[in-house]
Write a structure and sequence with these properties.
The protein is an alpha/beta fold. Helix content is 27%, strand content 28%. The strands form five sheets. The protein has a seven-stranded mixed β-sheet with strand order 7-6-15-16-17-14-18. Strand 15 and strand 16 form a beta hairpin. The chain starts with 5 loop residues before the first strand and ends with a helix. Bound molecules: flavin-adenine dinucleotide (FAD).
Length: 334
């Protein structure tokens, strides 16, 4: 271990950013590597011309007391708000109310502000697709991107990517690789559509039954100059899996047709249409541990695939990972 311990976190999604924020000020050299040009991962913000959409996570719920504290601080910072929208269950035009006793929260004005806020505190290298981590003889790890460029050496490496990436990066760490390989992920086709005028739909979001869709949600545009009505449509995991390799145009039409059928209104031509396939959307069978850490190799992994398949799970996993890293550094410091 070097005199000034260093930690690299691979992945600037919610888990990596939470871990990085918790370690800030405690670790002399701390760096996050993110393959995308944005932080946030599956809390994605999608833009098509002047229209914007939350095309990944839609809202979150809170169960754990520690997460309540975190959400309270986000509320104080005006980053999240309780979701006051009208959410229903929808089955071929039949609308029924869902349990609104569960408090749902959303990022304000969009989900991605949650990760934007965390990213402000972190030193992130973007467009850094880490493809190889190499154990050094004297301890620590060397990082390389997909072109083989060397991106530095670190005492501790934390993998905060989706499970399949974690399995690949930890090819030589059986405990993490086997855990990550055991996790299955759902597929989710997400459609983003803008309509010139407000659709004749009174509710803000719906869980959709007996349909290729599982969820539809109106996106409240933050730009008051536009009247456009923006909707995100999520296909069900089963439908998405079946059509994972389909052409985008075909999926786009199928999602829209399913929307008109579920809402039981006549179809309208969108002024903007896009689709995105989340090939690793939500873990089906998380490992059931807060995070994973292999003390002898100074390497760990965190993310929703360790804990629970939602925002709360990713945050708690990132926190737990930071705690494990600090315990490790304090032990090796002695
Ligand atoms: C369509 C959809 C809907 C959802 N809806 C909800 C919801 O309503 N409520 C809810 O609570 N949760 C929801 N979720 C789940 C929620 O988004 C996730 O649980 C959470 O965002 C996971 O965070 P994470 O940090 O574990 O992973 P991620 O957000 O996936 O972050 C991993 C990061 O690692 C980066 N990365 C991967 N490989 C590399 C590499 N080799 N090098 C560098 N960087 C790398 C990725 O680019 C990414 O930024 C939804 C997810 C999807 C996809």
């Amino acid at each position: 271990m070097s005199a000034t311990p260093s930690v690299a976190i691979i992945g600037a999604g919610l888990a990596g950013l939470t871990c990085g924020t918790a370690l800030k000020g405690l670790v002399p050299r701390l760096k996050i590597f993110e393959k995308s040009i944005f932080a946030g991962g599956r809390i994605g913000q999608f833009r098509a011309a002047e229209y914007e959409f939350n095309h990944g996570a839609q809202y979150f719920t809170v169960n754990n007391p520690l997460f309540w504290n975190i959400v309270s601080s986000w509320q104080s910072d005006n980053v999240v708000r309780p979701w006051e929208g009208w959410i229903v269950e929808l089955e071929k035009g039949q609308v029924s109310n869902v349990d609104m006793a569960t408090q749902r929260f959303v990022g304000h004005p969009r989900m991605q502000v949650i990760t934007d806020q965390l990213a402000k505190n972190c030193d992130i290298t973007h467009s850094a697709n880490i493809c190889e981590i190499e154990k050094q003889d004297d301890g620590g790890w060397r990082l390389f991107n997909e072109r083989g460029d060397y991106l530095g050496a670190y005492d501790v490496v934390i993998i905060a990517t989706e499970a399949h990436e974690a399995a690949m990066l930890c090819n030589n760490i059986p405990h993490i690789r086997e855990s990550a390989e055991s996790v299955g992920m759902t597929v989710c086709w997400s459609g983003m559509f803008a309509f010139e005028k407000k659709l004749d739909i009174p509710y803000d979001a719906a869980y959709v039954l007996d349909s290729p869709l599982s969820w539809v949600s109106r996106y409240q545009m933050s730009d008051p100059r536009t009247d456009a009505d923006c909707w995100v449509l999520h296909a069900s995991p089963e439908w998405s899996q079946q059509y994972v390799a389909s052409f985008r145009g075909r999926v786009m039409h199928a999602l829209l047709d399913a929307f008109w059928e579920a809402a039981d209104i006549s179809g309208q031509k969108p002024i903007s249409s896009s689709v995105h396939c989340w090939k690793h959307a939500v873990p089906i069978n998380p490992v059931g541990e807060d995070c994973l850490f292999v003390e002898s190799d100074a390497i760990g992994a965190c993310g929703d695939w360790c804990t629970a398949p939602r925002i709360e799970g990713a945050v708690l996993s990132g926190f737990s990972m930071a705690d494990r890293v600090m315990k490790h550094l304090n032990k090796t410091d002695r």
